[in-house]
Amino acid sequence: MPDRTAQLIACHDCDLLQRDIQLNPGCYASCPRCGAVLYRNATDSVDRTLAYTLAAAMVFLGANVFPIFSIEVQGDRSAITLFEAVLSLWDQEMRTISLLVFLTAMVAPAVELLSLTYLLLPLKLGKVPPSYPLFMRVLQFIEPWCMVEVLMLGVLVSLVKLTNNFRVIPGMALWSFAVLTLLLAAAAASFNARDVWAQLDAAWQGQGEP
């Protein structure tokens, strides 16, 4: 006799247990008690998330290679990248801020993009990535620490203050971070863990799992 408890899911808002039902493409299931969205049937979520992730990865590389802005004083121009800004904060004894910027604007987005690519690219090819439960947990842990939009806000505030004394020229990295913010938001919105698990099950069956 099949284990019917495996077909139960709990609402993430009110913890109400309810049956997991099949949905038509594009539809979603909501909790009858609190109305929270339980899951969606977005059949192309893996493809869309992978597309956003690969685009974000290319933009992220550009954002870390090119200068974030330049300062021109009496004809002399000095450019700085994000990593150089982190080192400058460290040298100025603002080490807590330096570490926060490094972790939330560089390490966390890189880990998120690498984890998404590691999970979704093999799935697109019909394969099961090794150690995929670990990377699913990494994604769940790292998402709150990815704060590129906070970096953008801080940079914009700094630019406004600097323009009173210097000529500030936005660099390619600044525009790249703006695009990266949109792409990461789009990837997070389209990512559906339920669809990923479903494709993982299908990939396991396709590889002849006993």
Give the number of DSSP strands. Answer: 7
Total domain units: 2
Q: What is the radius of gyration computed over CA atoms, rounded to a whole number of angstroms?
A: 22 Å
Biggest sheet record = 3 strands, antiparallel
**Uncertain residue ranges:** 1-6
- Assign an overall shape: elongated
Q: What structural class do helix, strand and pairing data support?
A: alpha+beta
Output mean pLDDT: 80
Strand order of the largest sheet: 6-5-7
What's the tally of helices? Answer: 7
* Strand composition percent: 5-15%
Pfam families: PqiA
InterPro entries: PqiA-like (IPR007498)
Protein name: Paraquat-inducible protein A
Organism: Geomonas paludis
Structure keywords:
single chain, 210 residues, alpha+beta, 2 domains, three-stranded antiparallel β-sheet, two-stranded antiparallel ribbon, 7 strands, disordered N terminus
